[in-house]
């Protein structure tokens, strides 16, 4: 992302995992763990949406950590359809929590990454340590079995998403009584609309910080 980005490796169940860490200028107020889009379609931790999400959280005082899924970049292993990827994300989270203890955790995902993070959230709940927040961009509801998420999850979706129709996201969100922030004219990749992602995340989490939630 920038000259200060730290590249490091974490041991996963299928080999080493390539990760990137960006720190805020001051003491971090939380951990933002971000998951990239589908690796078989070119998804990496350097995806432009994931980088915009990282910048948004860094600006809010969070540290932002990204990981290349199995078989991407210098991460070892092969694609595991979200199963091994969820385990790997949990390994990275545990590593960050050991290094930066007692910080609230926000899970963020884009496209396929939303499926992985929804599953990680379920694992965290089972262990009695749920995330403090979640941000999904281009949620792949209807395409993969995205799990239920907490009511304060921030969902951002493009009106013109050609991969996951907005109606599919509404159908998934409706039974959970979730709100969806729709960006007019945005496609799945948010081409020429990335600035909306930063604005929406920044506004939402500043409000939470002012309310004393972070």
Automatic annotation (TrEMBL):
<dbReference type="GO" id="GO:0016787">
    <property type="term" value="F:hydrolase activity"/>
</dbReference>
<dbReference type="InterPro" id="IPR029058">
    <property type="entry name" value="AB_hydrolase_fold"/>
</dbReference>
<dbReference type="Pfam" id="PF20408">
    <property type="entry name" value="Abhydrolase_11"/>
</dbReference>
<feature type="domain" description="KANL3/Tex30 alpha/beta hydrolase-like">
    <location>
        <begin position="42"/>
        <end position="192"/>
    </location>
</feature>
<dbReference type="InterPro" id="IPR046879">
    <property type="entry name" value="KANL3/Tex30_Abhydrolase"/>
</dbReference>
<protein>
    <submittedName>
        <fullName>Alpha/beta hydrolase</fullName>
    </submittedName>
</protein>
<keyword id="KW-0378">Hydrolase</keyword>
């Amino acid at each position: 992302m920038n000259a200060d980005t730290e590249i490091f490796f974490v041991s996963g169940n299928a080999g080493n995992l390539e990760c990137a860490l960006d720190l805020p200028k001051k003491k971090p107020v939380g951990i933002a763990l971000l998951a990239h889009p589908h690796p078989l379609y070119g998804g990496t931790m350097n995806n432009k949406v994931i980088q915009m999400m990282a910048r948004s959280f860094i600006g809010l005082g969070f540290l932002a950590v990204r990981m290349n899924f199995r078989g991407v970049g210098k991460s070892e292993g092969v694609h595991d359809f979200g199963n091994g990827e969820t385990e790997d994300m949990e390994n990275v989270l545990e590593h960050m929590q050991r290094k930066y203890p007692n910080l609230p955790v926000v899970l963020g995902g884009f496209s396929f990454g939303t499926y992985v993070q929804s599953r990680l959230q379920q694992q965290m709940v089972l262990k009695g340590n749920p995330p403090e927040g979640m941000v999904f961009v281009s949620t792949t509801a209807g395409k993969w079995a995205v799990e239920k998420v907490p009511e304060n999850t921030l969902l951002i979706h493009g009106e013109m998403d050609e991969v996951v129709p907005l109606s599919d996201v509404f159908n998934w969100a409706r039974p959970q009584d979730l709100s969806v922030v729709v960006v007019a004219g945005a496609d799945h990749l948010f081409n020429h609309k990335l600035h909306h992602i930063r604005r929406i995340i920044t506004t939402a989490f500043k409000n939470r910080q002012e309310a004393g939630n972070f």
